[in-house]
Each structure stands twice: as C-alpha cells, then as structure tokens.
User: What shape does this take?
Amino acid sequence: MLKIAKYPAEILRKNAKPISEFNDDLKKLAEDMAKIMYEDDGIGLAGPQVSLSKNIIIIGDSDEHSWKAYINPIITYISKNTTTTEEGCLSLPNIFGNVTRPKKIRFKYQDLDGKTHKTKAKGLDAIVIQHEVDHLNGVLFIDRADKITKGQDILDSLKNNGDNK
Ligand code: CO
Assistant: This one.
C-alpha cells in the first residue's frame, strides 16, 4: 500500500523521473494514488508524495470524487496575472501559507495510455496543477509562500528535526 511521504522526507526534494512505460501497473498506481488522496481529503497528489520518483500527478475533484492522472506534465505558458491562494499539502499536514502564482497556465501531458495532450487551466485547477508540478521538481509550497498562515510552529520544529538528521 502507498503511504504519504511527509516533510522533511528527502524524496520530496528530488526531481522525479519521466515515465516511459504506459501499462497496467501505471493505471493501478494512478488508482492507488487517487484512493490515498481522497482518504486524506486532498485534491492533488504527485509521485514523490508517495515516495516514488515518477512524473505522475493526480488531480481530483473533491465534490465528485472524480480524478485525472497527468503523466510527464510540462507547463508551457504562465500568465502575467497572478493570484494569491492559501495552500496546504498532504506532505505538510496542518501547515498553510499564502502562495502567489500565475492565474492561467497552458501545459502538456500524457494520459495513462501515453497519448500526448495540450491543454490549459485557470482558477483552482491552475493552482493545483502548478503545486503538483512543483512536487515533481522537488519544490514545496513553503518555498514559495509569501506568508505561513497556519502551523508556523509545526514547520519550525520539522525544520529543526530535518537539520539534525
Ligand atoms: Co503538495
């Protein structure tokens, strides 16, 4: 069974590897990731967050429990207009912060069958996709946060633990 990697786990700081095999194992992985994401009330999850160095992200709709897997996603355009949202992360429980990101993006990705798609996103989808693509590059929302709004004390103690390892 998959388990969520929690900060300061090292895997969260590594670049994830591209996926080249589109088979039943990959479909099973996507399903398992979606399951654990919903169990933890998340709306996005990236490979490194389940301790796998793989370029896969799952984006979910919390109301409908529908989800989609994006393989090897690459952001190809970001708008100049930005928006600031309070973000959280399953790998950083009980910590939240305000992050400013481009409002609209275009990106390309492969689906679970390996077919390439080009698409765009705005609103919450654009934010979640940027947050998850960051995970594939070892970047966490705390690196980008203008301000930690909740859980600064938790973050400080985790940082100290990480430094002492
Ligand atoms: Co996250």
About this structure: The chain has a mean pLDDT of 95. The chain has four helices and eight strands. The pocket of cobalt (II) ion is lined by residues 89, 91, 131, 135 (CB under 6 Å). The longest helix spans residues 24-39.
